[in-house]
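Notes, p. 3: input format for complexes.
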Amino acid sequence: MRAYGRRHRRWSRRNPQPLLFVPHESLLRLAMTAIGRALFRFRSEAAPICAGLALMATGLLLHHSHRTSWPLVALITAGATIATGLRRIPWGIERWTERAYAATSIAVGGGWLTAATALGSGHSPLPTVLVLAIIALGVPWWAHRRRRARVRVDRVIHAWPDLADTIGLNGSRVMSAVVDTWGWRARMKLRPGQSVADVVARVPAIESALGTRPGAVRVEQDPAHAGRCTMRVIAVDPHAGAIPWPGPTARTLADPIELGVFEDATSVRVPLLRRHALIGGTTDSGKSGVLNVVLGNLVACTDVVLWGIDLKGGMELQPWAPCLARLATTPDEAARLLADAVAVLEARADASSRGNSRVWETTPDAPALVIVIDEYAELVDTAPDAVGHAESVARRGRALAVDLLAATQRPTQKAMGGGALRSQMSVRVCLRVRERRDVDLILDKGMLTAGWHAHTLDAPGKFYVLADGHNQPRRARAYLVTDDHVRDTAARYADRRPELDPLSQAAIDRPSRALEPPKAPTADPESALLSALDEAPDGGLAIPELIKATGMRRTWIYDRLQAHAAAGRARQVARGRWKA
Ligand SMILES: Nc1ncnc2c1ncn2[C@@H]1O[C@H](COP(=O)(O)OP(=O)(O)OP(=O)(O)O)[C@@H](O)[C@H]1O
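Output follows (580 residues plus adenosine-5'-triphosphate):
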């Protein structure tokens, strides 16, 4: 029947008929038909008036035939009012305002009917009371946002077969639709042979046909059925405003990191243990914002040592310096840091193979090492020697808990130093991109066609994420971490950061010893230490460098640094880096 209707409509469109005048059709009948159609179309808007008319007619009828039964009408009214107000019968209305409205309407309508049964609908002042009640109860009804949305959705569902024909999705059906806080969503059944990719490809056409703003329609695959999907129409952007960061939720690297929230208000939780992550997006898209959310959580984890590379002079990562065991701000420092990461990797690989274990189990005593790199392309340009080390970490680091977290504007082959690194990144966060094809660069080939439309993201911090458990193109917005948040969080966790395990630390110290054996203690190690601190660069000197300068042991250096810090002669500029 439905198929016949569709065929008929299509045929009528292709073969428009001349306007016919039917002389024998009575004018009254035509008018009644038009009124009936209008009443049906606007049935929701007309409901209060129709209810009033129905009450009037019922009152007339009851007064005429059962005028003594008004106590029964009153009893039923009281029962229905209580059931609706207190027990949510018969509609199961959850919101208390809607329940109160329903109970009031029943009480007023039933009360009026009781009076009309006893006295007659026309008895003064009952008609006036009825008109006033229709207006008083009608206003909230007409103004109700969810009711109006429901009506709009019903009309769309009704018109969908025609719309679908127009936009090239003929044969698709809307099975059900629900109005929610942000708009509405519909479950769709596709014609055999159609796929969700066909719907995704027609999203702009759907938006035009539904008359929504651009970017308002989302399409999600039904995980249980290839021929079904959910279409969401977002009337009010749930991500219009910034979402404040609630603070760290992870306590160990095994806990997923909460990056922000999806449009349905569920949180975006991404596992980072034994995974490398890539954050991509154009300038001002919020890459540093996402890095800050991740760092805000990682500094609260007791089983992660953090190293940072920020070749923008430390602009982005410097505020986290109290929690970073190392921060490289020059190409040389970055190259050394990554070479040390490879040394850690090799030492751990060696220890694991001797201990016959395949993976490095992270604990506070044997923490993971996470290297955060802000603007990876800068590293490739200015420290090409470091790229080999970074790739080595990317290839071998996961099992040994040495992870990379890199942000970049555009991860082209060149910017990613050949692309070997990118292929190892299993967590991809894609913020706004300038060119559509950048989506495939950041996420993976074919993702743009699959519906990951990052070029339509319209505010900083909005992103798509591709990771374990996130393989659907769902928009999210990252929490906004303010400068105050960063300062407070860094200060709060600075003293609780774990040290690298002795095995990894020894691997870092070893090469410098091998190349340049420690000098014999200088005549005055104390003044050697102070002059080294005086001459230290802005990023400070690391402990191995101070060992080299003084020829003294690590414990002696720590003791003296504490004493000088207490006397105000030395300060820690980053985790493990000191300066006068
Ligand atoms: N999640 C967010 N919610 C709201 N505003 C944000 C969010 N993330 C970033 N912003 C704002 O967007 C602006 C740019 O953010 P950010 O510096 O993180 O971008 P970026 O991509 O790192 O830029 P660049 O490429 O220049 O380093 C900032 O003013 C910041 O306050």
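Residues 242, 281, 283-289, 409, 460-461, 477-478, 480 surround adenosine-5'-triphosphate (CB under 6 Å).
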